[in-house]
Automatic annotation (TrEMBL):
GO CC, alphabetical: ribosome
Keywords, alphabetical: Ribonucleoprotein, Ribosomal protein
N-acetyltransferase domain: residues covered: 2-171
Organism: Algibacter lectus
Gene3D superfamilies reported for this sequence: 3.40.630.30
Xref: InterPro entries: Acyl_CoA_acyltransferase, GNAT_dom
UniProt cross-references to Pfam families, sorted A to Z: Acetyltransf_1 (PF00583)
Protein name listed in UniProt: Ribosomal protein S18 acetylase RimI-like enzyme
Transport in keyword set: no
The keyword Ribonucleoprotein belongs to this UniProt entry's keyword annotation: yes
Highest taxon of the lineage: Bacteria
GO terms of molecular function: acyltransferase activity, transferring groups other than amino-acyl groups
Length: 171
């Protein structure tokens, strides 16, 4: 059984915990151990996540499978992009499933719920940044009608940036 719920600030600790694990699973090899550790410690801490709930345009969602937390997403509605000429678009800022839940078709169901939420806010599309070496994610997004519209260097640390594609799906 799959359950998708909108998270609240009370879920900040859970999101931080799952965020650490999923980031390490998908990006842990993308930089030095020290750079990854610093990034994860800064980004996926309860206080930092809780602070994001103050922005009314930011929403977190949690997906569970058979009563186990499988992943989370973060979207920001009305998040303009320098790569997309549209006044009302959503940014898919984070979209992570724990490796233990890959292959169960949860990503498709989770993704479709995000798209429906974005459309409810009368958005004209959704955009995201994806690491160029994350071929599995790029394939997923391409299959779901995203197009590469730009490139961006994601600053992981003071000494490390990872190249990302900016992808966009219009509605």
């Amino acid at each position: 059984m799959v359950k998708i719920v909108q998270a609240t600030v009370k879920d900040a600790q859970l999101i931080a915990k799952v965020g650490r694990k999923t980031f390490l699973e998908s990006h842990g090899h993308s930089a030095s151990e020290d750079d990854i550790k610093k990034f994860v410690n800064k980004t996926y801490q309860e206080q930092a996540i809780a602070e994001e709930f103050k922005n009314e345009n930011v929403q977190y969602y949690i997906i569970s499978f058979e009563d186990e937390i499988a992943g989370f997403s973060k979207i920001e509605v009305n998040a303009l992009s320098p790569w997309v000429d549209a006044p009302a678009i959503t940014k898919l800022d984070r979209f992570y499933l724990l490796e233990a839940f890959h292959g169960k078709k949860l990503g498709v169901e989770f993704f479709n719920s995000i798209i429906e939420t974005s459309k409810q806010y009368k958005q004209q599309g959704i955009w995201l940044a994806v690491w160029v070496e994350n071929l599995k994610a790029i394939k997923f997004y391409t299959k779901n009608e995203f197009k590469i519209v730009g490139d961006y260097n994601f600053k992981l640390s003071d000494t490390r940036s990872n190249p990302n594609h900016i992808m966009f799906k219009a509605y």
